[in-house]
Structures
1.
Amino acid sequence: MPAPVRRVVLGEGADHVARWALLVVLAAAGFWQTWARIAGEVMAGSGSEVVLAAPVGAVLTAVALHLRRRPELPIHDRQSDKIAGTIILAIALMIQWLVLPRYADSYVLLHLDLVAAWLFLLGGSVFFFGTRRTFRYWPSWLLLTVATPGALRLFVFALGGDRWAQVLVMVLVVSVGPLAILGPPALRRLRGAGSANGQRSGGRPLPSLVVSPREAWRSAPLVTVVAVLLALAPLPAGIDERLSPGPDASSGSGQILPPGWQELETIDYPWAERMFGPSATLERQMIRATRVRADWDELLRPRVAAVQTLTVKDPGVLEVFPLEMMFDLSSARVSPPRELPLNRGVTARYRTVIDDENLLTWSVMSFIWTRSGDRIQRVTLITVDNHEFDAEFPPAVPGTRSFSRLLNLLLRGAGAVIDTDPQEKDLDMLTELATDLVEAQWTDE
């Protein structure tokens, strides 16, 4: 290679590295809360390391595409770069500021801030390198678009939900791009038919199709401002803020009933192991009051309630599948959670649910606490508006059935899934039952 050409190529390469370094630094700074949350989720055992497979696979796919680099047409339109880059960065801002708050309860499951991060990288790449060069690596961007955190979580759940399913998904996501790009040429070489293709990338250096250094660095202030706006967007609160200290572990997987209540039956849900890990248990105790009270029922009927106990090893898995994911809420409207202090430092969250399809209205109160330091329990108390003895209670179902509610929230808005004017009929009853239930666990120690 002649000396002038070598200097041009080396200078261009250093400039490209500097552009990518700035873009990576801006992405790290703009989404610093996201990276910190993912690190915390991994430490909490939520399995969030699976979401890191997509960026690793995208980088390896880009490297494979670079190894197969071929001559391209020297076509460039800076005006198109500015339009495309601005639109993509605007979408990233809308996801972070407008869409993410709507899915606060499913934050860990969907991790929409990661989608905004990939869009920020895409828009910044368009500004720094141009549309044509950026979309030359379209398989990498497609992998980031398809392998979203929510899709990867569902894939892991479909394969069994254990650690081996998670490893299998990560290996598939990381390897699918490089194998699809480098696999066919390697097979042709093995057959003796790929020698001609292997010489395409040799010879003279290919013409640069990226924008000039002057144009690229003039875009840096705009991309920096967008990164600052993204960094200012707040993230939903973590589960650690709602985790209360609890009593020692009980001998069974359920709860000790307080005085004035008797157990009717116990229901076990074996599918909890697939969602929350092999050591997880989910049990529902159907209980009935042994005395009647006029403030609970005007006809003096004994009230029936459900006490549902989910026991897991790591608190992070409760963030992946929140309480709403354990019921079929595809046609239901749920009130915003209302926090209520109980006794012993426990704080509960109360909601009402109106299921228009099944004509069922029910109330739910839940709290999360530790048992013996190494087990975490989410205790859920449920009552229904029908006070008859054989009243129907909402069954617990695997979380995949509730994804239609998330789709309704995106397409139809909050009014389709949120009850803005709830009728808190059983608030006093559930508060008293939850308070007595909490006290009964300590009394039995």
2.
Amino acid sequence: MSRTTSNGNGGGRRDGGSGGGAPGARPTVLLTGASGVVGRSLLREQDGPRFVVATHSTPVPEAGDARSVRLDMTAERFGLDEDAYAALAAEVDVVIHSAGLTEWGLPAGAYRPVNVEGTRRIAEFAERADATVHFISTAFVAALADTAPVPLGPDNVCRNYISSKREAEHVLRDSGVRHTVFRPTNLIGDSTTGWTSQGQIVQLMSDWLGRGRAPFLPAHPGIRMDFVPQDLLSKAVLGAVERGDDAGEFWVTYGPEAMDVEDCLRVLVKHAAGRGRTLTPPPVVNADELAADAIANASPRARSYLSVLRDVSEVTRCSGGVLPTSMPELRERYGVPRVDDTTAYLASLEYAADHLG
């Protein structure tokens, strides 16, 4: 089996695989989190690798003829007996690890079983299989970096989730297994069709804002509204698999190319007009200058949504206002297409309105 060699562009290359495949053959990829937004997007990509789809309880329509295996990410050997675990390790060349608890606002301990210990199980498996891991983290880890311009508030709704992803990155780094880290920002639907397997925070907040429910929009001056179509992430990760890359950290964000708050509101106005509604954009209020009771006195739903918008803005501000980005490298290295974020955002809004309720 060939070993890692430097390719001079931030990553390694590994030809062939430990699962017994011939050099140049398509690798066999264990996909965790297959029923999630990222997993189902990966499975929709054409001409992908041979997938072994890790499932837990939710069906995965996009899996097609791919073999499914029921795994418990939190259990020793994924809950398999020794023979089944050994057979899986002998079969797999690469792991795409997208399984994780992504809901915000939970206690720190809620994230550990899947996000941290589950990643430790993946590292153990990768060592056994001599496999490369491609890990789906989050761009929000930038808010906890030592170089962050301001510290992230201890009560920020995203903090415990971000901390768990950062710790999971450390688990992989300390394990010594070959791996890459992909750090996407908030994902929206497919860049062309707007398709997504389920609505996420962007669609939820956008629908609320687009219906004129927000009394104001809390945002820190100069931040970017960085949303990335999910298929761009999928193409980047599968590009790494195809090239045999086994090292590197990639920020799947638009960075300085991302729309600003005003551009975001203009897209919402255009979307509302397409639905026969006239939207007057809410005033944008500096999140650092909010009156003490500005959110507390709002209706219960508005209070919840405004708090999330404020906290996400704080994460971006703590990441420098503009998220780090690897998008130019992803375009050159993996052929990720150049997509206008406002066009993709509008397509995502339209799909959500038609299909997600």
